[in-house]
User: Fold this.
Amino acid sequence: MPQKYIFFDIDNTLFPTSQFLVRADENAINAMISRGLACCFDDAMERLRKIQEKKGSNYSKHFDLLVKETNGRRDLKIVAAGIIAYHNTKNAMAPYPEVLGVLMRLHDKGHKLYIATEGIEIKQWDKLIRLGLDMYFDKVYVAKQKNRAFYEHIMKREKVVGKECVMIGDRPDKDTWPAMLAGMYTIRVKRGKYEKESARGKAHKEIYDLRNLPEIIEKL
Assistant:
């Protein structure tokens, strides 16, 4: 079987990001309430969600805004309690159960494995190291925005063409559609926050977990 260059997204592909974020936010809210955040748990979660939607996931002052909006003033003790609880949740981070075995099988078959993801690079490295996955990948590519040009860029860097490459991710708009436009074979993992999102262009293959990925790659 010809060697394949296999690119993975991280969030909701290798790691249950959506579940983790809910749990981390819940732990943070409970910690802030215990230190004086002046509202109940449900109200605090609703306010935090609105702040996150308005400011985006990579904004660093979500808790500051929540405390100021709720208590009417800045209180760094409450903010710090939330930050500590949020980061302590990271100690329990783990990949999806099948991921380690799948990566080892693909590596043993001689395939080249890469990360192709979007976000802040240091945060993505933090995830990979905490998950114990960083050593399985030949290279990590992190884009500010995943689009066709991004996938064309990484193929050029690796000196490969689309028919040699497979892109695996959960989001049609970020992972499969632009990679398909760049000429890659695409596999959508339908789980997490974007599981029910409709696709502008359907991926070549849709799966619900990675368990059978080596067999799928074998047939390409």
About this structure: The mean pLDDT is 95. The chain is about 50% helix and 15% strand.
